[in-house]
Amino acid sequence: MAEYVRNLWYMAAWAEEVPKGGFLARKLLDRGWLIYRCADGGWAMLADRCPHRFAALSKGQRAGDTIHCGYHGLGFDRSGACVHNPFGGEPPAGARVPTLPIVERYGALWFWPGDPALADPASIPDFAFAQGPEHVRGHLSMQASYEYITDNLMDLSHAEFIHRESFGVNGSLLHHGAQQVLTDDSGAIWNNWDITDADPPAWAKPMLPEGARMDQWLHMRWHAPASMALYIGLARAGTDRKEMVVPPMANPHIITPETAGSSHYFYTREPGDAAADMVRRVFKEEDEPMILSVQEGFGGADFWDARPVILPSDAGAIRARRRLMQLRRAEAS
Amino acid sequence: MAEYVRNLWYMAAWAEEVPKGGFLARKLLDRGWLIYRCADGGWAMLADRCPHRFAALSKGQRAGDTIHCGYHGLGFDRSGACVHNPFGGEPPAGARVPTLPIVERYGALWFWPGDPALADPASIPDFAFAQGPEHVRGHLSMQASYEYITDNLMDLSHAEFIHRESFGVNGSLLHHGAQQVLTDDSGAIWNNWDITDADPPAWAKPMLPEGARMDQWLHMRWHAPASMALYIGLARAGTDRKEMVVPPMANPHIITPETAGSSHYFYTREPGDAAADMVRRVFKEEDEPMILSVQEGFGGADFWDARPVILPSDAGAIRARRRLMQLRRAEAS
Amino acid sequence: MAEYVRNLWYMAAWAEEVPKGGFLARKLLDRGWLIYRCADGGWAMLADRCPHRFAALSKGQRAGDTIHCGYHGLGFDRSGACVHNPFGGEPPAGARVPTLPIVERYGALWFWPGDPALADPASIPDFAFAQGPEHVRGHLSMQASYEYITDNLMDLSHAEFIHRESFGVNGSLLHHGAQQVLTDDSGAIWNNWDITDADPPAWAKPMLPEGARMDQWLHMRWHAPASMALYIGLARAGTDRKEMVVPPMANPHIITPETAGSSHYFYTREPGDAAADMVRRVFKEEDEPMILSVQEGFGGADFWDARPVILPSDAGAIRARRRLMQLRRAEAS
């Protein structure tokens, strides 16, 4: 079982993934959980394990805000307390299901696996841009650790190789940009690429005057544990970024560990089949096999012990890894 | 490898499962075994592993009462002694296959994995009721520990939930019965449910006068390690159980570990496709997934260390677990 | 991870398996390797793992004698040195891919996983007979340890049982032969069977006069770790082996560990579909299942600790196992 930082907000699901009147069962941080919206509009997150015989509660049924185990019928309310025993009488002593704090913010559900007293929703990173009907919110599984997925996102130069065809890039654009790694007041780490006065990629040429050059920026924001946002812009060169060729884009890349070696990946995309195909191609056919190859290459070894060669372009990824390591150590001590 | 109680009779197979003139190969208590009926009508049980190169003897051939290894041809008799070497000359020193005591009783084959000097067939539990052409004797595999399967059988209240449709029960009958846990002189533990003066289940109503009430009893008998017998009766209420609506039924539920996490399940059923379908549905589609969920819920932890909540309805199951634990400890010391 | 003898030549591939202008990726001794023929005709063998992010280099591309990682574009030459960084500037310090000595000999590629200073091609065992267009050179995978495959080949009496039908043997020929185990100046261990004045097998009868008897010899040569050659001859009895009925045959059986529990098997066969079918049948359908049964029978135990019964016919196999054990111990100390 992996050692996770506990006192953090992790994304559990898009709120709209939870069936109305039902529940969502999802494995998060090595354990099964059951998530549902209560009659009063609040959210409940219960361990997906009956304390009696340890059967999954998700094999049972919901009645009102009570979850009934499908094996011997005990019922539990949103607080995890046993409120129904089919044999009658007092609910059995000690029959309580663990719960976690969970809140809805920006259309997403966030849970706090650490000390509930520290769970302040104000520290949920800002993903307001992910809301609204113009986005399709999606979820996929990757059979890789959230840390390798973070490494992948925090060094976008991989796009010049593994997404060259799907993104229509030319294999060298990013390498001529300027990289900056910053931290901000929200605790975020930013890995920013700014390309100035460059020949535009093929897809952008029709939107610019013949022979015009462009500025492009790709800014990746990271919050622990692995909640990322990518901001992209493209403007005519030398225009102080005002003359944007396409509207600025912002995309969530929010990764939550399912287990030590598998992850939930939350994203948004444009509506339509073409965008759905693109997501599948880029994430599942291009990113995932390469990330799996990396994970296999490490062979279970600790990242630092394995002594990978660190390039300047790894600066953002390395800073995020160091931050996580510090948080882990702080909690361990 | 699991720690099994050794000085007990375990069921290996129904006698009729063993092909005439051939042998049955079956994994029992983590090891492969080869079982056959000798020319004199007695039974032999040999380890399914040649002592020469450790190939499975079941990949070889039987000639008379001798089993020939299919790899290099050594032959072994029912006592496990090497009696044939294709290179001629004396059988190789030390070439001996382990054997176990095995006896036929009630149409079943029982083996004793412990000290052969203690193997007294008189201690085989009584399953005389399982014989006869009116029963079809069956065997299936469950990917679960015999102890979780025992828990399932020793608390029949699960039927009100997971077998509600297949058994046509109403979801609450058993919860109004009286439970008694007893031991008898044979060393059995009985977990008895007696329901008195209750509204009959739908399937029994046509056999009773309009508006009549009934008594029903479900008595489960357990012998270590996991050889169970279920006795069921249904009579018109207040008749001192004489006026039975259906003939009394007795069903074997005999569980033998294949490995720590998988089991052989021996049962009987009525002839016909409908009964075969019912067995598949009840055991494989209803019981097994729930038992697997339980096993997964424990995640390999020791039952007692995991501190499940114990209900009064668990009394029989818990007493059986305690008995097994005592037997294990007695053998370990 | 298994403990392999390092200072030995292991066969990696047939030279003709490596695509022209490309590379061959193969797992050998638990690690991925990438093998290619350089522009000057020499061979390169690089670890299939980029030292930057540990992605498999085989997911990248070859350009000239440089291998470019498919993840972030670093390029490595045949010496393992980083010679290209797409961000420009000096190649990153310490970015070096491990390499191994590799040479072509007898149409096969041989690598040396130990101390390069000791890698003398003169110690590559002689497989000159495997060359030439009259042979089809093949490679297959077996899900078994190279040591159990060696045991199988060093005791050919198994053929009388598991290849009886495919080879058309009579089940007893070898058992009447004389066995000799020898060592020679090349360090080889020979396990020789010589059958004299015997009734010929069915397939050889048409080539001999009515009622004639024959001499047959099957000589298996073993070099550490598991590079074997089988020499077969069949002559009219009492002719001092001059009057051969079929031309003498020599077949390579060269086994290289892929992992502790899987192996590469290099062989030759005659051209044509019938010979290809025979290879599949003999190696995959007859040998492999039996060797797997043996491996399962040992259940991961050390061979000597498991105390198998040793027969005289095991003399060659046992001597090979002892030699390997001595080599392992010598390297460990």
From TrEMBL, chains A, B, C:
<dbReference type="InterPro" id="IPR036922">
    <property type="entry name" value="Rieske_2Fe-2S_sf"/>
</dbReference>
<keyword id="KW-0408">Iron</keyword>
<keyword id="KW-0479">Metal-binding</keyword>
<dbReference type="InterPro" id="IPR050584">
    <property type="entry name" value="Cholesterol_7-desaturase"/>
</dbReference>
<dbReference type="InterPro" id="IPR044043">
    <property type="entry name" value="VanA_C_cat"/>
</dbReference>
<feature type="domain" description="Rieske">
    <location>
        <begin position="9"/>
        <end position="111"/>
    </location>
</feature>
<protein>
    <submittedName>
        <fullName>Rieske 2Fe-2S domain-containing protein</fullName>
    </submittedName>
</protein>
<keyword id="KW-0560">Oxidoreductase</keyword>
<keyword id="KW-0411">Iron-sulfur</keyword>
<keyword id="KW-0001">2Fe-2S</keyword>
<dbReference type="Pfam" id="PF00355">
    <property type="entry name" value="Rieske"/>
</dbReference>
<dbReference type="Pfam" id="PF19112">
    <property type="entry name" value="VanA_C"/>
</dbReference>
<dbReference type="InterPro" id="IPR017941">
    <property type="entry name" value="Rieske_2Fe-2S"/>
</dbReference>
